[in-house]
Amino acid sequence: MPRRCANHLAVPALKPPPDRLYGRQRTHALRPRQARLLAETLPRIRFASPSNPWSAFAALPTHLWLEVGFGGGEHARTLAASRPDVGLIACEVFDQGLCSLLAALVAEGEEATGELPGNLRIWDDDARTLLRALPEACLDRLFLMFPDPWPKARHAKRRFVHPDIVALAASRMKQGAEWRAASDDPGYQAWVSDIMAAQSLFSVAKPASARPDEWPPTRYEAKARAAGRAPIYWVFTRI
Ligand SMILES: C[S@@+](CC[C@H](N)C(=O)[O-])C[C@H]1O[C@@H](n2cnc3c(N)ncnc32)[C@H](O)[C@@H]1O
Q1: Ligand 1 contact via 71 beta carbon (within 6 Å)
Q2: Which of 151, 183, 219, 235 is the most exposed place for a label (fewest CB within 10 A)?
Q3: CB of residue 68 inside a 6 A radius of ligand 1
Q4: Across-strand partners of 123?
């Protein structure tokens, strides 16, 4: 039985999300500084202990947060700097994004030695793989800022907000944990509303059209606003 979305697209029974990732991941020509960041800095901050995530940080964190698709990393960096008590795992697969965050963390020439934040770790692989590997009910907060919208209906199963991924994320979140999400794409906005209205794992607060004060801005959001698109911001709370 087809489900009808608020954007009036009849969506046939949704296929499971594909195992492989779509979208850009690798750039062929890395500049020398970028190559050093990936070879020398990334291994020093890479998240490598999914079965015991708390052990990855310099000090035992009071809370565990996860950001999916950090892009240039400005949101992740601000979060980590503002909450030293929190352990933040930041996920990104695109090497230019990884390099942007790493470049902001260590000065040129200090790729192998520069001090790195003890409460920030990077997962440079598919966030869905990480979610599957984490213990149940370990996350206090999840961030999904401006996910790739995959606007074509035939690509809907690639969207991060998918019933199977919503269930997976819920299983890794504590009761009362917050999932913060934002999108500027009208089709994706309608999609999120529909998918979240059809589930019972999270309560869904009325979405906001202005970014809540304590949410750091992101690069993609700035581009969206400059292009005249209107983002929506959601908070889903794990029941
Ligand atoms: C549209 S960009 C938004 C980036 C950033 N959040 C912002 O607001 O500026 C989406 C990012 O998510 C990343 N991404 C998509 N799927 C992912 C996944 N399954 N795991 C990790 N990163 C993912 C992409 O590589 C891309 O950089």
Answers
A1: yes
A2: 151
A3: yes
A4: 91
